Amino acid sequence: MLSVQTWSPFRPSAFAGLVHYEELLFHDEVFWTSLWNTVVFMASSPIAIALALGLALLVDTRIRGRGIYRAIIFLSYPLMTVAVGVIWRWLYDEKVGLINYVLLSLGVTRRPIAFLDSYEWAMPSVVVAAVWQIVGFFMVILLAGLQNIPPNLQEAAALDGASAWQRFRSITLPLLRPAIFLCLVIGIINSFTSFDLIYVMTGGGPNHATEVLITYIYRSAFVLSKFDYAAALTVVLFVFLLALTWLANRATGGEAGAVDAAE
Amino acid sequence: MSAQRVSMRRRSTSLTLALLALGLLTGSVTAQEKRLSLLTWNIPVYKEKIDGWIADFNKVHPDVTVEWFDKKGPEWGPFYQTQVVAGTAPDIIDTQGAIWLEYAANGGLVDLTPYLERDRAVKEHYNPTFLRTWVYEGKTYMVPFYVSKTLLFYNKTMMREAGVTRPPQTFDELLEAARKMTKGEKSGFVTLNFDWLYWPLLAMNGVELLTPDLKKAAFNTPAAVKTVEALARATADGTINKVAWTGRWVEPNNAFAGGTVGFYQAHSPAFFYVRGGGPWINAETLGAAPMPGGFATPNSHGLGISKSSKHPELAWEFIKLATSDKWAYTFGKTLKVFTGTRVDSRLLEELQNEDPLAASVMKTQLEHLDRLVATWPLGKDAQVKEAFYSEFQAAVLGRKPAAVALAEAERKVNRLLAR
Regarding predicted confidence, which is higher, A249 or B55? Predict the structure, then answer.
């Protein structure tokens, strides 16, 4: 309702029609920048899932101390996101950051890189931190999925002469579909709600280079006091999220939940 | 008959007692209802003294309960706005910079003009220049709590090494000297950029943000384009440290405290932060001067009253007490700030004996008060600031040509002002 009204904490509301939607669609560059950045941020989910799948396959093998490896990989997830943001800020720091120290020591770069203050590096830097935090959680989901695959299927395929890649492509991946779908939905939702990490690491800057919809909603409401406009942005975010979840469901066969039920 | 009388007497006694109890109860409810709340901006360290304000206030108004909240900068706005919506806005608020403008423009603050007219002695207690910075459409909405404005800090060691003999007197001199000090890790200049604190760089080049009637953008001029181009060039070659345009408070302060920046445009509170983190800082190595032309952006704190306050008179009494000679002096002395009141000259005098370096910085806060800039009384200040800065920042960081960025900023600002 607020999105079709003009409203501020100091004034009563009045009907405004679609004026906020017109503003954001046709006059607000920052909205489009933040929407694009949200899509880019979202694109980190498949990367995280691929990484998590690799790690899950590794720790699913019979190696010594695999329990410890699993715990280490999962450790990043229970950390508070604010703490993750602060840790990565330090790591990326131009003067005292470990990453710059390593790059300079190896001769990869001659001058320290201002990762979080540059247009080019800010978004990839935040994405790396986001992937680092979520990858352990995805790994646990995928590992559970892997352990649910009946071993006799793999053994029968091996007896039939299927290579490891063929078994992975024809048995593991299809049977992991529900777990992958779950990761994808969580990843998408996470990318739309990753307010704390971005707020702590860059505040949406430099110059909106890491502004995503959720940080822009906060800025509009509490920095620019445009609560009505922020409500319109929230409606867009909701519609976008709904559409993406539907698409993700379609892309994974359309009945991801039903597979579980059948089993 | 006698039994009837006894019964009637009992009834009337009971009624009297009931009425008495009701009166007492109502009285105590009324007394409890006299509540004042105070919201300050990130001064938890001042708790003991604020308890002192409240104790002094209660000596005169024992029936009033004063409640104090303190919020850090980023939390202050969301907290206050949500309290306004909930109908529990703090009666007295301490705001920083231009945040009060939007509240005043939307009718959220009590007009203090009649109070100041009534209490002439109180009005005269405040520095008139600072008091004028809280006027919107002819009405005064806040009174000074503590005041500051921008100045130029300079690293004397870096200046000596680069052969720079004096603080810059013009914009060109500023960039030229900064360029001489730029070498390897060292950069010549950094500035704070929030709340229009960078504006003196444009003001000293004759750039005005708006037309005198505040209805249109006036900054898209050849002088502005030239200035922004010069700033962009200086940023690209490292003369200006990039954190000048990307950092907020901590990053520029840390850059200067690190001893690798020659000039630093910031307001006086930055001095205490920088000195805490810069062991190199002493009277031999650090200097303070006005920016070329004496231009400065104020970034002061004021005290005002929420429109929803049920006790504006009491709130005003509280503000008078908090900014009185006694408490203004205590505040300035404790936190080493000026208060925008007549106690400031005494504070400066004492500081000169106790901490000459801090005094040299603080002295600049009371000079060139006729050169305060970026004090436009705009109800949409935050939005205009955002519209201008996003384009200005893109230009100085080399993302857009200055002319294109300023034209775009002009379009955005005019659109905002027209709505």
Answer: B55
- How close, in Å, is residue A247 to chain B by CA atoms? 34
Q: Do A223 and B77 make contact, defined as CB atoms within 8 angstroms? A: yes
B82: nearest CA in chain A? A9
- Cα angle value A119/A123/A124 (rounded, 5°): 115
The pLDDT, as a whole number, for residue A254 is 64
Set of chain A residues whose Cβ sits within 8 Å of the Cβ of B102: 225
Contact B190, B252 (CB under 8 A): yes
Interface pTM, i.e. ipTM: 0.75
- Judge contact between B123 and B316, C-beta under 8 A: no
Q: B245 and A222: CB-CB below 8 Å?
A: no
Q: Which domains does chain B have, with CATH numbers?
A: 34-148+299-357 (3.40.190.10), 150-297+380-418 (3.40.190.10)
Among the residue ranges B174-188, B239-253, B385-399, the one predicted with the least confidence is: B239-253
Give the orientation angle of helix B356-363 with respect to helix B344-354, to 10 degrees.
Answer: 150
Chains A–B, number of C-beta pairs less than 8 Å apart: 55
The letter for the amino acid at A168 is: F
Query: In which residue are the tokens 């024809």 written?
Result: A170
Q: Chain B: give the shortest CA distance to residue A33, in Å.
A: 12
The four Cα atoms B263, B264, B267, B270 give a dihedral, to 10 degrees, of -120
Query: Could you tell me if B77 lies within 8 Å of chain A, comparing CB atoms?
Result: yes
- Chain A residue nearest residue B255, CA to CA: A95
What mean pLDDT comes out for the span B52-66? Answer: 95
Min Cα–Cα distance to chain B from A256, Å: 41
CA distance B225 to B228: 5
Q: Does B106 touch chain A (CB under 8 A)?
A: yes
Confidence of residue B14 (pLDDT cuts 50, 70, 90): low
Cβ–Cβ of B81/A30 closer than 8 Å?
no
B72 touches chain A (CB under 8 A): no
CA distances for A102 relative to A107, A112, A140, B17, B200, angstroms: 8, 10, 31, 84, 40
> Does A163 lie at the interface with B, CB-CB under 8 angstroms?
no
Query: Is the Cβ pair B393, A223 closer than 8 Å?
Result: no
Residue B6 has pLDDT above 60, yes or no: no
Indicate the domain borders of chain A.
2-262
Mutation pick from B95, B183, B246 vs chain A, by most beta carbons of A within 10 Å, is: B246
Return the closest-CA partner of residue B318 out of B56, B32, B22.
B56
DSSP states along A150-191: -HHHHHHHHHTT--HHHHIIIIIHHHTHHHHHHHHHHHHHHH
CATH homologous superfamily for the domain A2-262: MetI-like (1.10.3720.10)
pLDDT tens digits, one per residue of B234-250: 999 999 998 999 878 88
Kindly report the nearest CA distance between residue A237 and chain B, in angstroms: 21
- Of A254-263, B26-35, B348-357, B402-411, least confident by mean pLDDT is A254-263
How far apart are alpha carbons B412 and B88 in whole angstroms? 35
Cα–Cα distance list, B76 to A223, B70, B196 (Å): 10, 8, 19
